[in-house]
Amino acid sequence: MSRSPLSPVHVVGGGLAGSETAWQLARAGVPVVLHEMRPVRPTEAHVTAGLAELVCSNSFRSDDAETNAVGLLHEELRRLSSLVMRAADAHRVPAGSALAVDRVGFSDAVQTTLEAEPLIEIRREEIAGLPPADWDSVILATGPLTSPALASALRALTGEDSLAFFDAIAPIVSVDSIDRRAVFAASRYGRGGDQVEMLRHGFPAVRISEGAENYDRQHQDLRTENGVEYGDTIEGVDFNYLGQVARLNIVAMAALGNAPASPLGVTIEGAVKPDTTVKWQAVPGAAGYRVWWRSTTAPQWTHSRWAGDATEITLPGVVIDDFFFGVSSVSDDGYESPVVFPGPSGSFVSVGDPAAPAS
Ligand SMILES: Cc1cc2nc3c(=O)[nH]c(=O)nc-3n(C[C@H](O)[C@H](O)[C@H](O)COP(=O)(O)OP(=O)(O)OC[C@H]3O[C@@H](n4cnc5c(N)ncnc54)[C@H](O)[C@@H]3O)c2cc1C
Fold this sequence. Notes:
This protein has 7 helices and 17 strands. By secondary structure, the chain is an alpha+beta fold. It is globular.
């Protein structure tokens, strides 16, 4: 860091907020020490060591400054010489009127700029408690994944039980984070499951089961027998748990409700060719489409390509025999429909699958 008569501002967290803060302070001539714990200590969601790594969606939502509040904020940030906006504009990918970026290029651009700024020193370390008393000025920008040590110090300082953040869109759920023991892809033994009807009607669905069921409470008529009370009564309801489930459902419904319908009529072609061509029909409300593919042994989508508002894309060197393919619709605001496989829209089961509807 170059010498300055001012004592540095310590910015903790080199995410989106911390990176922009460090940049704006340096532009104002204020020295900054930016403390970022990755890669020394990872988070549950970040996957790189890069500053300003976008977690989850690579969309900054609408970039329409005329009719959308988010787009207006983008424009205000640009006028304030925002580094985040400059990097986003430089690494923009087609997404209709939404601002979507190549997240790796975006993060690299932010990091390279901050590393080159003489007034900024970047330290890769966790601040594992309240900041030292000899730091004059501190800005905490540790985001929703604040490390547990700092979070518990903040809880103790503020007397709050928990700290929360508002997420405007449903996050990606990584398959790795799901306990496979508790997930039944088709059904519980001999009892079916709510998701089977969804599958029968052509929509992807899994059942996530509570593994410690109380069989006195569940699947019982209300009665008392040999001193045991059976049945699902109000005293047995865990309202805290129920509230969490309701929140999850609402966030999922809001995300689906804001998303356009899935593309129609998805087809794939490419037998005996080195490339695969994916085609689909446009749906109302979609600003563009994302084509996904994954190896036939992979549990989740591993590759995707933004197709803009086209209804066809050829994937060079992607051999049709080796992958599953799907297409999703994306709205102006970056909301994404469920990915659909080739076949009738929503088709999830193939002919001959045990979960397929009886003809
Ligand atoms: C799973 C998930 C999905 C999300 N999906 C979306 C989405 O789709 N759209 C959306 O708008 N927002 C989403 N968010 C919210 C998203 O995190 C914010 O939009 C944005 O990243 C917040 O920026 P930030 O700078 O506050 O935090 P971050 O970008 O997370 O940056 C905080 C940084 O602080 C570092 N840090 C944490 N604790 C310490 C410590 N003690 N010492 C040093 N460094 C520390 C972290 O490593 C991180 O780099 C999601 C969040 C999560 C967790």
